[in-house]
Amino acid sequence: MSLIYYSELAESKGVVLCRGDVLARPTAGEALTCGEARRLMALVLAYYTRPECYRHVHAMNHSPHTFLFDQMAQQALALETVATTTTPH
């Protein structure tokens, strides 16, 4: 999967456009389905735009000894539930 963020309108319009492409079609379970890619994109967006989520990203990158994977995974499951009920298909 490839995500490209277009930030040209961020300052003037307050929006950043995002394009997501699934680069390979699923064969023998080796690639993401479009639904899985959509959920992953929603989680990436959440983890980089919500302070309560970004703290996990920051800990993983800057102080891995304090990074708690289980906490992040629990939060991801909760966020995924929200993302799958609010994301258009």
Description:
The chain has four helices and two strands, in the order βαβααα. The chain is mainly α. The longest helix is centred in the last third of the chain and has 18 residues.
What labels describe this entry?
mainly alpha; single chain; two-stranded antiparallel sheet; 2 strands; 89 residues; 4 helices
Instruction: Give the biggest beta sheet.
Output: 2 strands, antiparallel
What percent strand? 5-15%
User: What is the CA-atom radius of gyration, in angstroms?
Assistant: 15 Å
Question: What share of residues is helical?
Answer: 55-70%
Give the end-to-end Cα distance, rounded to a whole number of Å: 17 Å
Order of helices and strands: EHEHHH
> Could you list the spans in which at least 5 consecutive residues all have pLDDT below 50?
none
Question: Layout of helices and strands, plus pairs?
Answer:
Elements: E1 2-6, H1 10-13, E2 17-21, H2 34-49, H3 51-62, H4 69-86
Antiparallel strand pairs: 1-2
In short:
With 89 residues, the protein is mainly alpha-helical. The protein is built from four helices and two strands. It has one domain.
